[in-house]
Amino acid sequence: MNLNAPEKILNNSAPRSPDYSQKDKPYHESVLLEEALRWLAVRPGGVYVDGTVGLAGHAQAILEASGPDGFLVGFEWNESSYELALKRLRPFGDRFVLVRENFAQIKEVLEGLGKVPVDGILLDLGLSSFLLEGSGRGFSFLRDEPLDMRMDQRLPRTAKDLVNQLSRLQLEELIRAYGEERFAGRIARAICEARRKAPIKTTRELAEIIWQAVPASYRRGRLHPATRTFQALRLAVNRELENLKRFLEQAPEVLKPGGRLVIISFHSLEDRLVKQAFRHDQRLEPLTKKPILPSPEEVSRNPRARSAKLRAAQKTVEEV
Ligand SMILES: C[S@@+](CC[C@H](N)C(=O)[O-])C[C@H]1O[C@@H](n2cnc3c(N)ncnc32)[C@H](O)[C@@H]1O
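Above: query sequence and S-adenosylmethionine SMILES. Below: predicted holo structure tokens.
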């Protein structure tokens, strides 16, 4: 499960979830696993793409369901997750290839591998529990870590760069647009005041600046006041919405007629992009009128699934 979901906590207390940071216990529970397989209509011998392999929960299930001769192309741009996934999928031998690439390059990569067209593509967006809690990259304001937030270390700018280098107006705009944060102005101002004294380097420093910047009533709210700003920085550092847009433009071109596109998203900005593309792209036919949500049992077992939304579409059978 994904950690795009804003964390529901009331204060700056220590994390309540188990500590998955130990290197020997990388952890992530796949969200909407059965539903994803069902909407992908996985069949033996099919060729599938998992654009966000993570720790390979969905990828493994796709390989099992498409056996004995189905094939999977997996994208995972985070180096540690890539290595862990490779290890987990090794028993499937030559039935898969894993690339350390951005899913926004899906067309070029699949063409390079000679795998176009495919039967189905899955995206399970955002962070894994492993990245959130075990990567040391500063994704969570509940931990004291360097402000990095790059899922892929080859990306050019860290959260620390943005926080210390953007103008006040740019910061305000970023926090408002990507975080949908109503106190974006106050937070941007407080960041600029703080960084005049010394550069802001850690998640704890930033969370404290935000905490002090917002009205007291906001601190008593359902979400920690830093939730939305952290989300905004993460989206910007990883260019998550741009990647999703680029992916949505290309995905219909690499699907077979009738091929399935299944996307699990975790916040409204992503879901809106998916919904619009499925509704307006003539090459796609939406299959889910309303998004598929996790069952109450799944949410109680795995609280991070609570904001997941799955949408599915298929490539139109007649070319337009
Ligand atoms: C929610 S996790 C996927 C979990 C996976 N479905 C599982 O069951 O283990 C999302 C993963 O996608 C990766 N990711 C996010 N954006 C990506 C992109 N643009 N290209 C490639 N990988 C990406 C992240 O590094 C993360 O490991």
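Residues 86 and 98 are 7 Å apart (CA to CA).
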